[in-house]
Every structure is written in C-alpha cells, then in structure tokens.
UniProtKB/TrEMBL annotation:
Coiled coil start-end: none
Organism of derivation: Phaeodactylum tricornutum (strain CCAP 1055/1)
Protein name as it appears in the record: Carbonyl reductase
Keywords (A to Z) from UniProt: NADP, Oxidoreductase
Pfam families named in the record: adh_short
Gene3D superfamilies xref list: NAD(P)-binding Rossmann-like Domain
Protein family per UniProt: Belongs to the short-chain dehydrogenases/reductases (SDR) family.
Molecular function terms, GO-annotated: oxidoreductase activity
Secreted keyword on record: no
Length: 277
C-alpha cells in the first residue's frame, strides 16, 4: 500500500560505514529531515549503523535501512519499489556507495574494469533514473553524487575531454563513451586512445559527467538540484585508513550541496565549496 509521508526523506547509499555514515549523521542533525534511510547491502552492518545513528539523533528523526546492492538492477528495482511503498517520495538522494580495487589486488587491470564501471557509474545511473520520479515528488529535492578528484577531466586526451564536457552530451552518448573505454581496456589500447590508465578514475569522471547531464535535463523541468563532490582523501576502509581527512569532514562536501539554501545545479564540490572539474 503506497503512502506519502509528510516529513522530508534523505536516502544515503553505502552508509553503514565510512563517509556515508557521517553523511547520514550530518543530514539527520541538519533539522531538515524526519527520515534518514540507509541503503546498504550488508544487513548486519546496516542494523548496527541504524542503532548508532538513532542514538545520536533527535527522536523526531527516524533512521531505518533498506537493502541495496549497487550494480544489481534487480536490487535497484526492488529498492525503488520499497521507497515508493514506504515514503511515496525521496527528498534527497546521496549516491555515496562506491568501490575501488585495492592497489595490492591481484585481479588483472582488464578484469577490474567492468565491475568498477558497473558499480560506480552504471549502478549509480540506473538507481538514480529509477528514483528520479520519486525525487521529483520531494520538497526542495536534491541529488548529490559522491564522485572523486580521481575523476578529473585532465586525465583524458583533449578530444575526449571535449566530448565528456560538451554541453550537448546526452546520457546515451555518455554511456556509449564509457562502453568505448571498456572496449579499449579489453583491447589494451586505452592509453593510445587517450583514456589514461584508471578504471576508478574513468568511473568517477563519468559520474561527474552524468551529474551535468541530469542537471541540464532537470534545469528545464525547474525543480531538482543535482550536484556532485569529492570528499577529499579520507581515512576509510577504501583507502586502508591512509587518507589525510577524517571521514566526518569529507562528508561535509556532500552535505553542503544537500542542505545549503539556494543550491546551484550541475556543480562539482570539493574542499567545502564549488570547485573545478
Ligand atoms: N575515502 C576516500 O579518500 C575517497 C576519496 C574520493 C571519493 N571517495 C568516494 O566516497 C564514497 C565513500 O567511500 P568510503 O571511503 O567511505 O569507502 P568505504 O569505507 O569503503 O565505504 C563504501 C561504502 O559503499 C558501500 N558499497 C560499496 N560497493 C557497494 C555496492 N556494490 N552496493 C552497495 N553498497 C556498496 C560499502 O558497503 P559494504 O560495507 O557492504 O562494503 C560501504 O558502505 C565512495 O563513492 C568513494 O568512491 C572516497
């Protein structure tokens, strides 16, 4: 049975630990939400995070979790259905869940490509597209995509840079460019073709490009603000705790565009302000 709750709902993916946990905490403390939903694949860690966050937040903010495996379209579908049935809308979506192979991982570079793109880029695009109809029903609705400075345009040849940064780029063209990168990696020709040498970097570069595509689409519709960010190099499991920034500070780079008054759209936030791609 579908019901639309009255208070604002924030959904944070990958929020059982790391930067996402602190994004959820800070959104809960912002006084702007009555529901904070942790979208997590590990149910046990999600339950621990719900209890820990609920203990730190005012009683009027309800924390809960739902199952989500980013990169699994059936899981995206079930998650979107659950959000529709539980809340009837989503006011803010923070796409924080992300994955990087460790430098020490022995999986060959070619075999790291598809899973990295499937989770970080294709998963984020498919999940967001499924949730956007619910986000459009939100109050002051926003999407924040946690990308990375690893997604800098400068890693590409000038020709590829102009394709990714074109103001005419469509989502279908962006997906095709990412497919071309994947093919080049499988052929071993990615460096010759101007792609640089990071699967993770291209996955995050494509998330930044997708942010700008959605922002253009929704600028015409006039409602949803869609931005992205780099949290900075943070001490989390992803970096084996080698980062230089506390994850609570890194989280602010997502929380600022999710909560600020009169947010811009289509921008890349880093170091707590709008930065350059
Ligand atoms: N740490 C940094 O220095 C840094 C810098 C730039 C950008 N980022 C980005 O910041 C975001 C958070 O990273 P973090 O450093 O906090 O990493 P983390 O501690 O490894 O946390 C990653 C979170 O994403 C979840 N996740 C990963 N793959 C998933 C999947 N397929 N489905 C559902 N959930 C998934 C993890 O869930 P499980 O517990 O189930 O694994 C975990 O909750 C990522 O997007 C990352 O790329 C981090």
């Amino acid at each position: 049975m579908m019901s639309t709750v009255s208070g604002r709902v924030a959904v944070v993916t990958g929020s059982n630990k790391g930067i996402g946990y602190f994004i959820a905490l800070q959104l809960g403390l912002s006084n702007l939400f009555e529901h904070v939903l942790l979208a997590c694949r590990d149910e046990s860690r999600a339950a621990d995070a719900v209890a820990s966050l609920q203990a730190q937040l005012p009683n009027k903010v309800k924390v809960s979790s739902a199952s989500l495996t980013l990169g699994n379209t059936e899981s995206h579908r079930a998650f979107a259905k659950q959000m529709e049935e539980s809340f009837g809308k989503v006011d803010v979506l923070v796409n924080n869940a992300g994955f990087a192979f460790k430098g020490s991982d022995s999986t060959p570079f070619k075999e790291q490509c598809t899973p990295t793109l499937d989770i970080n880029f294709r998963g984020t695009v498919d999940l967001t597209n499924r949730l956007l109809p619910l986000i459009e029903k939100g109050t002051d609705p926003r999407v924040v995509n946690v990308a990375s400075m690893a997604g800098r345009l400068a890693q590409l040849s000038p020709e590829l840079q102009s394709k990714f940064s074109s103001n005419d780029l469509t989502m279908a063209e962006l997906e095709s460019l990412v497919d071309q990168f994947e093919t080049a990696v499988h052929d071993g020709t990615q460096k010759d073709k101007g792609w640089g040498s990071s699967n993770y970097g291209i996955s995050k570069l494509a998330v930044i490009a997708a942010t700008k595509v959605w922002a253009r689409e929704y600028a015409n519709k006039g409602t949803v603000s869609i931005n992205c960010c780099c949290p900075g190099y943070c001490k989390t499991d992803m970096t084996s705790a080698k980062g230089v920034r506390d994850p609570a500070d890194g989280a602010k780079n997502a929380v600022i565009p999710a909560t600020m008054e009169n947010p811009p759209t289509g921008q890349f936030f880093e170091n707590f302000k709008v930065g350059q791609w």
